[in-house]
């Protein structure tokens, strides 16, 4: 067993690069008024993280290979200067688990959607034909309460969101419920970025500016309610049809994180970008629960700890990609507006009640109120004041 000496060459290089660029983001970050950079102490390198004492150090009698699927490109480090967030998450998870188990557990990575779409591989994880995956946007279809954190303008900063998903007991209990109901074990929550509005009609500075604009949304009632509450029209369209829909005028606008806007080259067919950060979107890692429970207790702890550390790598990589690298790429072709704190408060005032009312009808008032209270508790714990 390697104990705390788990950092192989890949982990060291990855963590050093991400840590240095996190500092760079904190100093230079121009892009996300909705997501202030985390203080340095919350972005400590994983090498300083206290590794819990293992209850049972028994390793599998023969090598176990787990397959991990995700959608992000795998170009870094050979063909790209920075790792895409899911790729960073997967790389660190692989190296941590393999190092901590002394090679008794190996992680095979299947990035760039090579084994199917996120929803398809999520179904495979649930069925047991895939072990682990990372992704965004579909888990709420398997477990309704998962969509609760998409309440618009909920999280005040990256610090609040990251701290919440890593430390909230309420969220941990909800993830235990998800495991019981779906057969999927939650391992950690990285981020897919803050979602922002783009369109071809007008610059959006206040909720009324959405009136009459047709926005593409995901197949999610929450996003439909959010757009409609501000006077816009919501049109669900598949991601692979979005570019053409914008180009031909089927819809006027859309909402996505900067990294997704750049990935889809949507800046080529959009004029205006409003950096409102209405939803903190996820890159969640889940594992087939039966496979997880078959592992020795010590390996289970390694998988959980690895998931948390990998989510931190994802968070740093996403900030780096969205706030510097990709932001510069999309900002060259669109007119960019950063709403003031007062303007964002107006967006929140108009859109939150409609979404909360919908979620209360779907999930129950007690669950929604419990969630909102737990977020407020995290804000208080971290010293945040609205």
UniProtKB/TrEMBL annotation:
Keyword tags: Signal
Alphabetized GO MF terms: carbohydrate binding
* Signal sequence residues: 1-33
Q: Which GO terms describe its cellular component?
A: outer membrane-bounded periplasmic space
Keyword Phosphoprotein set for record: no
Report the PROSITE patterns cross-referenced here.
PROKAR_LIPOPROTEIN
One Gene Ontology BP term is: transmembrane transport
Q: Enumerate the InterPro entries for this protein.
A: DctP_fam (IPR018389), TRAP_DctP (IPR004682), TRAP_DctP_sf (IPR038404)
- Which Pfam family, any one of them, does this sequence belong to? DctP
Q: Specify whether Disulfide bond is a keyword of the entry.
A: no
Q: Which PANTHER family match?
A: 2,3-DIKETO-L-GULONATE-BINDING PERIPLASMIC PROTEIN YIAO (PTHR33376:SF18), PTHR33376
Name of the protein in question: C4-dicarboxylate ABC transporter substrate-binding protein
Give the source species.
Answer: Marispirochaeta aestuarii
Kindly list the organism's lineage: Bacteria, Pseudomonadati, Spirochaetota, Spirochaetia, Spirochaetales
């Amino acid at each position: 067993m390697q104990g705390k000496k788990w950092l192989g060459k890949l982990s060291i290089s990855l963590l050093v690069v991400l840590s240095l660029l996190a500092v760079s983001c904190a100093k230079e970050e121009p892009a996300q008024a909705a997501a202030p950079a985390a203080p340095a102490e919350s972005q400590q390198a994983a090498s300083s993280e206290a590794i819990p004492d293992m209850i049972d150090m028994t390793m599998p009698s023969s090598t176990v290979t787990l397959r991990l699927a995700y959608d992000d490109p795998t170009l870094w480090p050979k063909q790209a200067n920075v790792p895409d967030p899911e790729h960073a998450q997967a790389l660190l998870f692989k190296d941590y688990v393999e190092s901590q188990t002394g090679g008794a557990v190996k992680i095979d990575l299947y990035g760039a959607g090579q084994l199917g779409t996120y929803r398809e591989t999520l179904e495979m994880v649930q069925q047991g034909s895939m072990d682990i995956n990372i992704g965004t946007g579909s888990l709420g279809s398997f477990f309704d309460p998962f969509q609760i954190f998409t309440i618009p303008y909920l999280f005040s900063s990256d610090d609040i969101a990251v701290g919440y998903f890593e430390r909230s007991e309420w969220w941990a209990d909800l993830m235990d419920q998800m495991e019981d109901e779906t057969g999927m074990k939650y391992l950690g929550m990285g981020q897919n970025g803050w979602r922002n509005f783009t369109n071809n009609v007008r610059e959006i500075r206040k909720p009324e500016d959405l009136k009459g604009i047709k926005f593409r949304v995901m197949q999610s009632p929450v996003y439909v309610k959010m757009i409609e509450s501000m006077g816009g029209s919501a049109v669900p369209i598949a991601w692979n049809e979005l570019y053409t829909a914008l180009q031909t005028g089927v819809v006027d606008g859309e909402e996505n994180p900067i990294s997704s806007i750049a990935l889809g080259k949507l800046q080529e067919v959009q004029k205006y970008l409003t950096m409102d950060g209405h939803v903190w979107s996820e890159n969640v890692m889940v594992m087939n629960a039966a496979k997880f429970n078959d592992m020795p207790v010590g390996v289970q702890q390694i998988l959980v700890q690895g998931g948390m550390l990998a989510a931190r790598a994802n968070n740093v990589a996403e900030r780096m990609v969205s706030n510097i690298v990709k932001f510069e790429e999309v900002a060259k072709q669109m007119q960019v507006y950063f709403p003031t704190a007062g303007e964002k408060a107006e967006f929140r005032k108009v859109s939150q009640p409609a979404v909360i009312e919908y979620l209360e009808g779907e999930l129950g008032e007690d669950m929604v109120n419990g969630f909102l209270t737990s977020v407020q508790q995290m804000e208080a714990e971290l010293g945040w004041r609205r």
